[in-house]
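We close this part of the discussion by returning to an individual protein. Part of our work consisted of pairing the sequence of a single chain with a tokenised description of its backbone. What the numbers capture is local backbone geometry rather than side-chain detail. The amino acid sequence and the backbone structure tokens for this protein are reproduced below.
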Amino acid sequence: MQKGYVRKVEGVYRVADTRVSLDSLVYLFREGLSAESMVESYPALTLEQIHGALAFYLGNQKEIDEYLAEGRRAAQAQHEESRKTNAELIAKLQRARHASEIPG
């Protein structure tokens, strides 16, 4: 019987039936963390689930890398839009921070 270690729910890849995103494991994997270290970071996951999720990633690497790149692009666009929308507030906060700094 084959187990499903990754599910796509509402456009987001999740590990098994948890709220842990595949993204988070992939980024740790890319940083060189071991599966055992990932269990420490995500105690809701078993070692088997992490190995299964990483196997899913490696078997679908091109698709998942494109998904991650799209997520980064969307986050960057949201960040830029937020800075435009909140430009006045950001400037006010920067002025307040500067005014409260102690010289020297």
Remarks:
- The mean pLDDT is 91.
- The chain is about 65% helix and 10% strand.
- Strands lie at 6-9, 12-15.
- The CA atoms of residues 30 and 66 lie 15 Å apart.
